[in-house]
Amino acid sequence: MAAAVPGLLRALLLAAAAAALDNGVARTPPMGWLHWERFLCATDCSAQPRRCVSEQLFTEMADVMAAEGWRDAGYQYLCIDDCWAAPTRDERGRLQADPRRFPGGIQRLADYVHARGLKLGIYSDVGNQTCAGFPGSYGHYELDAQTFASWGVDLLKFDGCNSGSLELLAEGYRRMSLALNKTGRPIVYSCEWPFYLRPMQQPNYTEIKQYCNHWRNFFDVYDSWNSIKSILEWTALHQDSIVKIAGPGGWNDPDMLVIGNFGLSWDQAVTQMAMWAIMAAPLFMSNDLRRISPEAKWLLQNKEVIAINQDPLGKQGYRITKDKNFELWERPLSGGAYAVAVLYQQEIGGPQNFSFPLAFLGNGLACNPACSVRQLLPSSRDWGVHSWVSSLSVEVNPTGTVLLRVGAL
Ligand code: GLA
């Protein structure tokens, strides 16, 4: 049967199959802020007025994002996660925000956010309840997509709890994607489809990319080194199937940046920032931007590192070698350049040196016949011009990462 399909047609069909969701957004990994990891499901505003999931939390965050360089660094999407909704739909069957915590509703918040040059994200679930037990979108996909669009929402995180079955899970993710497209409003569609599928079924990433702008593959990030480590290890172990699928319009999502919170040391925060850039990950911070250290701010707003994350070629990086406790990762960039990360996993002792031949990089092409090497993290420093036959030696702290940019000459 396949032999009967003419070659050109087959090529066209295959090209169409690998295409990303064509809604014009997420041509580079989306960047913003998402409340979940830091603020979870705090709903008691009388006990925790500055920490509960409320209009005030988001307007305060919007003010800081606009005033303190976050928006200008690229963090554009201010996103609400679970626990925003009232426990029941309104008399017309529409989702509604909890009236005490969001007195102006989502639309007023969207206007506020847009007036500051930002975009608003919201959250719902493919099943009949969200993971935290709020109303889900099952049976209401079209209506909810229209409601979100009418409020001026720019991103939907669509969770996969309580879906009932794998068929309903897939069907729901597809139907919500089509419903969002039908609204005519460009809305970034953030999925957890492969994560909920994985225990039972291998995800079909070609299909997922046709419907989603980014997708979670693995467990929720926690504010801990263990969590960051496990996300990186999972990604490296599955890189053969997930790296090639990432590109403009569709990205693997290793979950939020937790830099600026409580659980990571400075070197571990550097590792998260460097590796999220290598992985072409969506950059959604979950922290309290109203109170954040100058160091965390420097790291999260680092222009050169963000430029790697946002590189227009849109290729995800991968691990090249793991040598004892050192890992060497690279990411091809536009203009023949490469981002290179050396991660040192040992959790005892002090800094150690790692040497590698530059001919290791880019299958021998990254530094051929010569290249310029610049260190971006943990601090910026020029390493000058190197030739193809030379080796580089970098000193890395335990659980830290050295991030380099290797440019073709
Ligand atoms: C799931 C998701 C998290 C968060 C919570 C909210 O666990 O993976 O990112 O959205 O639900 O309940």
- The helix-and-strand class reads alpha/beta
CATH architecture of the largest domain: Alpha-Beta Barrel
Unreliable segments of 5+ consecutive residues: 1-17
- Beta-strand content estimate: 15-25%
Distance between the termini: 49 Å
Ions, cofactors and other ligands present here are: alpha-D-galactopyranose
User: Number of domains in the coordinates?
Assistant: 2
CATH superfamily of the largest domain: Aldolase class I
Q: Tell me the number of strands.
A: 16
Gyration radius (Cα, Å) is 22 Å
Strand order of the largest sheet: 7-6-5-4-3-2-1-8
Q: What's the overall geometry?
A: globular
Number of helices: 14
> Helicity, in percent?
25-40%
EC number: 3.2.1.-
Keywords: Disulfide bond, Glycoprotein, Glycosidase, Hydrolase, Lipid metabolism, Lysosome, Signal
Pfam families: Melibiase_2, Melibiase_2_C
Function: Catalyzes the hydrolysis of glycosphingolipids and participates in their degradation in the lysosome.
Structure overview:
The protein is 31% helix and 21% strand. With 409 residues, it is α/β, with parallel strands linked by helices. The protein folds into 2 domains: 31-310, TIM Barrel; 318-408, Immunoglobulin-like (Sandwich). The protein has an 8-stranded parallel β-sheet with strand order 7-6-5-4-3-2-1-8. The chain has a 6-stranded antiparallel β-sheet with strand order 9-10-11-16-13-14. β2 (77-79), α5 (105-115) and β3 (119-125) form a beta-alpha-beta unit. It is globular. Bound molecules: alpha-D-galactopyranose. Residues 36, 81-82, 130-132, 159, 192, 220 line the site of alpha-D-galactopyranose.
